Amino acid sequence: MISIGQFFVYPDAVEYLPACLAWENNILPLKVSGNTIEILMPDRGAENADLIQKLQFILNKDIIPRFADAKTVRKGIKIIYPSEDTGPSQPASPSMPPGRRRY
């Protein structure tokens, strides 16, 4: 389990995932590396396999799931995507190195 204070959200990952997809599926992109994207999601058991397959098709990337409780994921989504139809918000802290934010 990943707690909210232990994961980084990289802006380039956010560009791959539309806000409506994040809100609808309660998922948060963390990091893109080559042809893979790390996605934070609640552990939904067998439902995760279907979601991962759907995301691979939509994003044309391999998905590396990372798990946290649903409230943690939703909190991160509210910070990154203030509403379902907007893009990412401004960086939460100017003290963070460019290119990543900690939640």
Quick overview of this protein structure:
The protein is of the alpha+beta class and 103 residues long. The protein has helices spanning 11-14, 19-25, 47-59, 70-80, and strands at residues 8-9, 28-33, 36-41, 62-67, 101-102.
Characterise the protein shown here.
The chain contains four helices and five strands, in the order βααββαβαβ. The protein is of the alpha+beta class. It has one domain: 2-Layer Sandwich (GMP Synthetase, Chain A, domain 3). The strands form two sheets. Strands 2-3-4 form a three-stranded mixed beta sheet. A two-stranded antiparallel sheet has the order 1-5. Strand 3, helix 3 and strand 4 form a beta-alpha-beta unit. The two termini are about 15 Å apart.
For the secondary structure, the number of strands is 5
Q: Helices and strands: which structural class?
A: alpha+beta
Radius of gyration: 13 Å
Tell me, what's the shape?
globular
Low-confidence stretches: 90-98
Question: What would the CATH topology be?
Answer: GMP Synthetase, Chain A, domain 3
Spatially, the strands of the biggest sheet line up as: 2-3-4
| CATH class descriptor name | Alpha Beta
CATH architecture: 2-Layer Sandwich
Please provide the ordered H/E string of secondary-structure elements: EHHEEHEHE
Strand content range: 15-25%
Count of individual helical segments: 4
Outline the biggest β-sheet: 3 strands, mixed
Separation of the first and last Cα atoms:
15 Å
